[in-house]
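Quick one:
INPUT:
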């Protein structure tokens, strides 16, 4: 087992025992979808790709891909990205 894998396993166990929110303690993305018009992604690490049809956001565990039509990044901050438009899908990669 790699050192990084061991670290993650220890963190997950601590989160479970201490009943901490996993999105905060493990730096996992928190995604809030409102209807088919708004997606909020917390705990991001940057924008990888941006077009009117696809927005790719880097997160700790890979990428979050928002697909749809007329997509815009409504706001971006150090800890969250807000996407609006006609949302057709949100996937992980």
């Amino acid at each position: 087992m790699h050192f990084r894998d061991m670290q993650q396993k220890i963190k997950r166990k601590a989160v479970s025992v201490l009943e901490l929110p996993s999105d905060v303690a493990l730096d996992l993305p928190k995604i809030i979808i409102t209807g088919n018009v708004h997606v909020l992604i917390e705990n991001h690490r940057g924008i990888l790709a941006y077009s009117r049809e696809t927005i790719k956001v880097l997160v700790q565990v890979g990428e979050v891909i928002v697909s749809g039509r007329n997509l815009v990044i409504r706001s971006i901050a150090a800890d969250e990205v807000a996407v609006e438009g006609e949302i057709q899908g949100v996937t992980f990669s």
